[in-house]
Write a structure and sequence with these properties.
Elements lengths: L6 E6 L3 H12 L4 E7 L3 H7 L4 E3 L2 H5 L6 E4 L6 H10 L3 E5 L6 H14 L3 E4 L6 H12 L5 E9 L19 H17 L4 E7 L10 E7 L4 E7 L9 E5 L3 E4 L5 H6 L16 E7 L2 E7 L7 H13 L7 H20 L3 E2 L1
Parallel strand pairs: 1-2, 1-4, 2-3, 4-5, 5-6, 7-10
Antiparallel strand pairs: 7-11, 8-9, 8-15, 9-10, 11-12, 12-13, 13-14
Helix pairs in contact: 4-5, 5-10, 7-10
Length: 347
Amino acid sequence: MTAPSPLNVALVGYGYVGKTFHAPLIAATPGLSLHSVVSSDPAKVAADFPDARVVAELETALADPAIDLVVIATPNVLHAPQAIAALNAGKAVVVDKPFAVTAAEAHAMADAAKAAGKLLTVFHNRRWDSDFLTVKRLLAEGVLGDIVLVENRYDRFRPEVRDRWRERAGPGSGAWIDLGPHLLDQALALFGEPLAISADIGAQRHGATADDYFHVTLRYPVLRVILHGNLLTAATGPRFSVHGTKASYVKHGLDPQEGQLKAAMTPGAEGWGIDTRHGVITTVENEVPAHTDVPTEPSDYRAFYAGVRDTIRDGAPSLVSVESALRTMELLELAQRAADERRELAV
């Protein structure tokens, strides 16, 4: 029995996200072929993927009947119009996070996917982070007891405001719309929908015109989930802190895959997705704490693209459903409104 032909992928955008994340992951996922790249810099693409066709305009890629899947890795304000155009052209679509600039745009994209009968999904790759997978396993095993407090943080130290669209005032810019989708998606995947949300979102760096700080609290009946990000934290805290009625789990350090991709490691190579920094479970008995190292789960972002392949080819359920991606966008927007109004808002 011959293997099916690989699905041809058109990657739209070859900036940091397209070059560092999507292109190598697509190329390294069996059953997918990086067929075309929409870019204004063909030399940059050719240096990495000489066999990929480079076109200057999205319309050229959409008119190609050989293209099965379009991956949108352009600035956030372009996600909705480009995804809708691709869906209307009969292509399946992956959109980098955030889904869109507004929840209304995201709903319009979902409507276009439904009308076209094509897959639409969002690159919520942090569901395949090593620390997240470890937390997910510990919750399933029940070793921490009933969870009462979770802190999920992205702390960075970038004191200088850079002249790039992500840091300039305007739709789709700022730390919350950049990092918030990761944290919200992880919280919803682990704990479901909260009862209410409160938020403090603002700018702290000198000269900043877009937000670079957020502290968002999701309130559940008992559980509180804190989502925090800051670009002025030189001494970073734990990536995950999970506290329950039996024990606490604390993990420092980021999943290694982004660093490995930036270093041009081929996804799937030896050592790929292996985080050697263990987390720690702390228990207390007779007021004496005990600490146990917890090996971190291996991780692989290619699982996302393997799922996309299986959905298109075999009709398997999408690993990141449109419904879950829409809910993340809605809560992202609700948190911003809670911050603007300085009050807790019901979900």
